Amino acid sequence: TKDGTNVSLDTALRLQEDDSELSARPTKDTNLPTCLLCVCLSGSVYCEEIDIEAVPPLPKETAYLYARFNKIKRIAVSDFADITTLRRIDFSGNMIEEIEDGAFSKLLLLEELSLAENRLVKLPVLPPKLTTFNANQNRIKSRGIKNNAFK
Fold this sequence. Notes:
- By secondary structure, the protein is α/β, with parallel strands linked by helices.
- It has helices at residues 2-23, 34-37; strands at 39-41, 44-46, 64-66, 74-75, 88-90, 98-99, 112-114, 132-134.
- The protein has one domain (33-143): Ribonuclease Inhibitor (Leucine-rich repeat, LRR (right-handed beta-alpha superhelix), Alpha-Beta Horseshoe), CATH 3.80.10.10.
- Strands 1-2-3-5-7-8 form a 6-stranded mixed beta sheet. It has a two-stranded parallel sheet with strand order 4-6.
- It is found in: Secreted.
- Keywords: Disulfide bond, Glycoprotein, Proteoglycan, Secreted, Signal.
- It comes from Bambusicola thoracicus (Chinese bamboo-partridge).
């Protein structure tokens, strides 16, 4: 009948609308910009307990980075190459096994660094202005500490 045809047309139109809504839903994207993945507040970036496996790209004016309790395994020189404003970094509770030589070398304002509860076997070269450093509960033995590490 004529009424039956209208109902099925309406139903078909509604199904098409539903399909387009489904395909437009966001999918989980691990390449989200840092400030969508983490919380960014006036120079501070909080990336805690979000299972990231690498240091995220940071806004240029970042002074404080809190990336505790994640799955970060290594820190590369490129992670902080463009961020010279960092004053505090906290990587406690990650899986960091390696820190590339020079990873912190451009961080001339860095005063506080926590690498506690990781898997380090040697200390990284530390920046000159560092006043607070924590490497508790790692795998560092005396051979992993250079003679001038705390110069």
